[in-house]
What we know:
Elements: E1 3-8, E2 14-15, E3 30-34, H1 41-50, E4 79-81, H2 83-88, E5 93-98, H3 108-121, E6 126-130, H4 134-146, E7 149-155, H5 160-167, E8 172-176, H6 180-191, E9 197-198, H7 204-209, H8 212-221, E10 229-233, H9 238-253, E11 262-268, H10 273-280, H11 305-314, E12 318-322, H12 324-338, H13 344-358, E13 367-372, H14 396-406
Parallel strand pairs: 5-13, 6-7, 6-9, 7-8, 10-11, 10-13, 11-12
Antiparallel strand pairs: 1-2, 1-3, 4-5
Amino acid sequence: MPPExxxxxxxxxxxxxxxxxxxxxxxxxxxxxxxxxxxxxxxLRRRIxxxxxxxxxxxxxxxVAAPPPPALxxxxxxxxxxxxxxxxxxxxxxxxKNDAANPTHSFKDRVVSVALARxxxxxxxxxxxxxxxxxxxxxxxxAAAAGLHAYVFIPADLxxxxxxxxxxxxxxxVAVDGTYDDVNRLCTELSSEHDWAFANINMRPYYAEGSxxxxxxxxxxxxxxxxxxxVCPIASGSLFTKLARGFEEWLSAGLVGGExxxxxxxxxxxxxxxxxxxxxxxxxxxxxxxxxxxxxxAIGNPADGSYALDLARxxxxxxxxxxDEEIVAGIxxxxxxxxxxxxxxxxxxxxxxxxLAERGxxxxxxxxxxxxxxxxxxxxxxxxxxxxxxxxxxSVESFERVAGELAVPA
Length: 410
Ligand SMILES: *Cc1c(COP(=O)(O)O)cnc(C)c1O
Ligand SMILES: [Zn+2]
């Protein structure tokens, strides 16, 4: 599908494929409009199979003139069948899409790959972003790999692990005294003053398209079939809505058949503007001030909130919120049943999956895919003191003294 123009999502006004994100007529968001596909499903499948082992195997569905030279390749992450987790939840078929297995350990490598590729085509030499943490990490790494300058703006209270994992690439790290929403507002102003490619602001239409590749990969890994239901975290709502767009594009291309999956969104109670609006039956989100350990999802004024609400409703899904305690329990549940250690955002996803399963909202026979979007090593502090250790002398006697306490219950 050759990218043809940018187009306003609301009033459909077209714009050239430049670094711009908002409609001059109605202030609606811009997205990519594609031309029609030049290949049948068999040919598309051949191109995908013949492509690289990265998200660029789906280049036919991405808004770049050509895939960039290989650098820090994102995507092609594992989709694991999680039978032990499924059993705990009394379900039959649960899959974990582990997008922590990306170069900088979160799904943000996908969106940055696409934004950066387009930014280079447009001639930018500086990549920037407003970040809740993972985006800063990905922007810093991908800019370093491509030899671009990087400016990353983060809320000053971000987890230290994320700041350290970003600083190592030597971007300009600017810690802003304020929430993510303050950082985003500042960067929106800066984007009109500086000739920088802000991944999630003036490059947002391209950035957002990167999330579709999570849908493509899921379908390819399920042998070109679709899940019945997906559970996916929501910050701005971009990933959630573009996951749907990915499945829709493959349905209309004839690459998969059947029905759209049921879309279930996951938020933390301490920042759940979309879950609240869903529960109250509203079409728009009222902004909130975030207070949660799930900092990568702490967006109080989500740009794609109303589209996320519409998607959950039209697929028969829901948008739910879980407490910080449930998030930590979700992290443990995933770790102890699959061996995957996820960050707080993944804890949100698993806790919502558990809540839906326990409420009986998921039919036992459904095929469910849960999206794990980030790595537990980035939010280590939230599991501190959530388990015990035993300190002993290096002697058998010393071990025997605690052995009773350590015995695994039958
Ligand atoms: C950015 C992010 C998301 C989703 O963000 P959206 O703004 O909704 O696209 C989910 N999980 C993690 C770990 C993230 O960093
Ligand atoms: Zn418009």
